[in-house]
Amino acid sequence: MATAPGYGSDLVVDLLRAAGVEYVALNPGATYRGLHDSLVNYGGNRAPELILTTHEEVAVGLAHGYAKARGAPMAAIVHDIVGLQHASMAIFNAFCDRAPVLVLGATGPMDATRRRPWIDWIHTALVQGTQVRDYVKLDDQPASVAALPESFLRAWRVARTEPLGPVYLCLDAGLQEQALEHAIALPDVARFRPPPPPHADPQALDEAARRLVEARAPVIVVESLGRRPEATAPLCRLAELLAAPLIDLAGESQGRPSVPGDHPLDMSDARVEAVSEADVVLALDVTSFLSGLGETDRSTREVRYLNAAAHVIAISLDDYAFRSWAHTFQSLAPVDLPIAADAARALPALVAAVEDRLKGDRRSAPRQARAQRIAGRHAALRVESQTAVQAQRGLSPLTPAALAAEVWDVIKDEDWILANGTARGWARRLWDWRPERSYGGSGGAGLGYGLPAALGVTLAHRGSGKVCVNLQSDGDLLYVVSGLYTAAHHRLPLLTVMFNNRTYGNDEAHQETVAKTRGRPVENKVVGIRIDDPAPDFARIAQGFGVHAEGPIDAAAAVGPALRRALRVVKDEARPALVDIITRF
Ligand SMILES: Cc1ncc(C[n+]2csc(CCOP(=O)(O)OP(=O)(O)O)c2C)c(N)n1
Known about the structure:
By secondary structure, this protein is an alpha/beta fold.
C-alpha cells in the first residue's frame, strides 16, 4: 500500500486523518471514485473507515447522529448533484439542529475537455454548493490540489465553531484524480482549531442576576441547552438558588433535552401555568420563544402570548446563526435583556453572580416556600403520569405511554442511550430521565431522520457497552428503511422499537382538526394518510435486510418477552434488532 500521497484524493485522506475523522459514510458515485480508491487503497479503510449506506439521506443523517453523540463531526460523502439532492433533507436537519457534519461532494471534471460524454455533463453544475448553500455554514470548491488543504481546514474549523453546523466541500473529480507532481506539505491541524465559544458580557450577566434574584416568580426556559451536556448541573443549581421552575421545550420543538425528569423544579408538563405566573423569564438557548411563552390554537393557527408582561432575559448565539432562506430563526420575540453568548458557557458565571447576590438576602423564606410549592406540583405531575400509564397498561394494542413503560422495564438496568424518539414525551415522564443520555430530535422536522441518526449514535458509542435504543415511528422509518442494511452490514447493535400506529399520526390529527373546524366528516381524516392497506410488515422487511426482527405484535403481554429477546441479540451478539409493535393512535 502506498505510504506517500500520489494523487489529489490521497491528500484528502491525509487531511481527514490529520483532523481525526473516524468514519466516512457514503453511497458510491463515479465523481468521487478517486477519493473512494484513496480511502480504501491509500488509507487502508481505517481512520477513517467507510460506512456503507444505501441512500445519501442515510449517510448524512447518520453523520448527524454521530456528531451529536460524539461531540465531533464525521464525514459523509455524496455523489455530485444527484447525491447532494438526496442528501439535502438531512443537511437541512443538521443545519437546524446545529450539528457539525463534514459533507464531502464531487463534481465535474470542471475542465470540460476531461468529461465523459453525457453523464459527466448532466451531473456537473455551476456552482454545485448553491444547491445547499442556504443551509450549510460554508461551501467551497477548491480549484487546485494546492488549494485543497486550506479549503479543507477552513471548512473543518467553521463546522466546529459555535454555532455549529454542516459544511459542504465539493471536490472536483479531475482534481481528485490528478497525479501529484511534487509533495504538498500538510499544515499542522492543531493550529486551525475552532475558537472557544463566546462568553457573556459580565455587566449584562450581573444585571440578569439582579433581575432574577429580585423576581417574584422567575422561570427558566430551555430548548437546546442540552447540546452541551455539561450545562445540566449549573442549570439545576441556578434553578435551586432561585426556586425557579424549569421548562424544557426539547420535546415540543425537537431541541436537546437538558432537565432531569426527577428534578423537583421540573415543570415542563405545567408550562402554561408556570409561564403565566412568571414576572421574569430566563431563556437559555431558546430559538422558538413562542413554543415557550405562547399558546397556539390548533384550528385557527392563532398564537397568543401567555404572559406578555414578563421581563425576558435571553442568552443564546442565535444572532450569529442567521440565514435568510428558511425562517429557522422563528418569530421575533421581545427580549428585555439580550445576551449574545454560549448559554452553557455563561451559566457557571451566572450561577456565581446569583450566589453572590443571595448572600445576606432576606427573602429566602418566600423562596423556600416557592420551591416547596413547585416540588409539590412536580410530584403531583409525576403521580398523574404514573396513574395515566397504569390505567393504560394491559390494553392491546398498546398506547404510546404503555409502550414507553414496557421499554423502560426492559432497559432500566442497562447503561442505556436514547438514540432517537420520545414516545410522545412519555420517555421523559416515565423513565429515570437523564438528558445526557438522549440526543433530541431532527432539528428541522424533516422526516427520515430517526433510523439514520440512531445508527450514527450507535456508531459513536460502539464498543462502549451502552445499549442504544431507537423509539421509531413507522412513517419516519419508511423514508429511509434501507438504513437497516447499514445496521446489519456494519453490525451496529441498535435496538429499534417500532411505535407503529400504521398512520401518519400527526397529519391524521391535523385532518381531524380541519374536518371539525369546517364541519366535514371526521371519518375521512384517514384518506391519504393511513398506512394499513396493506400494512407494511416491518419485521419481514428488517429480516430481509439481515436484522433480527419480531412482530407485528399487538398483544400487550407479548411485548416484554419480545423486547427482552431483542435486547439479548443487541447485547450478546452485538447485532441490530427490531421489534415491530402496534400502537394505538
Ligand atoms: C420530509 C417530510 N415529509 C412530510 C412531513 C410532514 N409530516 C410531519 S409529521 C408526519 C407524520 C409522521 O408519521 P410517523 O412518523 O408515523 O409518526 P406519528 O405522527 O404517526 O407518530 C408527516 C407526514 C415532514 N415533516 N417531513
